[in-house]
Structure formats: C-alpha cells, structure tokens
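*Target chain*
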Amino acid sequence: MNRLFTFLICTVLSGCSITANQPRKEAPIDVKWPIYKIEKGNKYMYLLGTIHIGKEEMYPFPKKIEHALKESKYLVTETDATGLTDGDYQQSVNKERYFLKEDESLNDFLSKDAEIILKQRAEEYNLDFQELQKYQFWFVMILFLNAGVEELSTDYGVDQKITELADTHYVPTKYLETPKYQIEAMRKVYTENEADQVIKQIPSLKESKRQLLQLYSNYIDGKSNDEIEQTEDHFDKKQNKIMVEDRNKIWVEKFESYIHSGDIYFAAVGVGHLEGESGILATFKKNGYDVKKVIE
C-alpha cells in the first residue's frame, strides 16, 4: 500500500479555473510531456497524460501541444470538477455522499490503534480530528491528500493548465464522467469497513511530501510508474480495478467513437491511466491503433 497518496494524486478530482492568455515564452524546465497521437487509417486523436499537481516553471506548454489542441474540435477531460462546488449539486449530495449518518462517527469503524494514528496524522496535517469524525472515509482521504500538497500546487496541475489553454483558443470541453460518478468510485474504494486498515498506512506528512515530489519528478523526467518496483496487496488491487482498469475500459470505448467520428479530439487524463498492461496505450495497440509519441 506504499502507493496510497501517489495513486490518489493521479486519480482524484481536480478543479478548473480560467486565466487570461499570456504572451508565449519558453518553459524554464524541460518536461518530457507524455502526449500521443492515436491513429487508425486517416483518423486520429491526441492523448495527454496529466498529473493534478505541478509548478509554474513547467509552462507554457510546448508549441506541439498547443498546435494539437488548436487543431482539435474538443478537449476531453475526466470530469467537470467545478460542478462539485455548485450550490444545487452540493445540497443534493452532501448528506448522502459526504457525511456519515448522524448517529455515527469515523471512530466507530476504527480500532484503538487506528484511532491513535488518525489523531497523530490529523495533527501533522493540520486537520481537525473531531471534524473528521463526521465525514465518510473517502472524503477524509481527500482532505489528507489536499493538506499534504504544499510545494506543489493544483493550480499548476497539467489538467488545470490544459483546460485554461483550451479556453484561450475557444476549444470547447467535453467530460468522460460526471462528478457523481467519480465520487461513487471513490466511495467503493475507500469504505468505512476498510478504514482501519488504510488509516494505518497514511504516511507521515514528511513522507507524503516526499512521495508527491517524487511523482512530480518522475513526470518531469518522463519516467513511467511501470518502471518503479511496487508491491500490491488486496487493497491495492481493488483500488486499481475500480479507479483505473474499469474506467479505462469505458474511456477507450468513448475514445474509439471519437476517432471514428472523423473529428479530432484532444483528451487529457491522469498519466496513470496510460500505463501498464491494462492501460489505455496498451489497449489501443491491442485494438490495432498506431500509437506515436508527439514529443520525443
């Protein structure tokens, strides 16, 4: 379960905001951007692997990415995360999907050891231990994740910045999933019945920051997570199936329909979805598509 936080940062919900167009300049650092052209016959789409955190010096995007986006009819991202802050939406889901029942608390599902660890970690991450007691476990994990981001910012996440770039070029956005769908997937993974096990694996704040910085460094260097030796337990496998494999199958079907339409689409999804035997790139290759990296 050593992949807990790095997994979440590759798959959790991300926000979107709009900024004004800036004069083009060269990025201070050289990012090995994971952008691919997926083609069959004379029809194709672009696919960019993203992370939800980043730094200002990653940008602007190189011209090849900007040109591919300008060429496209639509930008496709995982979800319209701004919907999560909509008042009507919040009123409809808060009690049902964010909060435990009124007569429950998170400690009801924890052993004494896990309760002590949760209290220690909450203090490290500057979270209110008593406040955590009322939330469903999936949302508690999101709160820990967001609290652990300091040197890196979601404002400079790749999904965030590609959405801003699409806006400057008037490329409309489509979404693969609703916010409700993503929340339901998280709820299936991070259940109260497994909270005791998972809480014991929450890393220290220092270790969490180290993991996030390593994830960022790997992305910059173009290093695939497939190249990193990892161990998987039952929870890891469940997490991967629900949050990656099952969603990949649905997404590839949608991507194939986009390509067959003859229109050009630019998709941007978490880089973890691209990798591995059940990853999007491998699936496209199995289905007879030509997969070429746009920037070597």
Observations:
- The first helix runs from residue 4 to 11.
- Residues 50 and 184 are 22 Å apart (CA to CA).
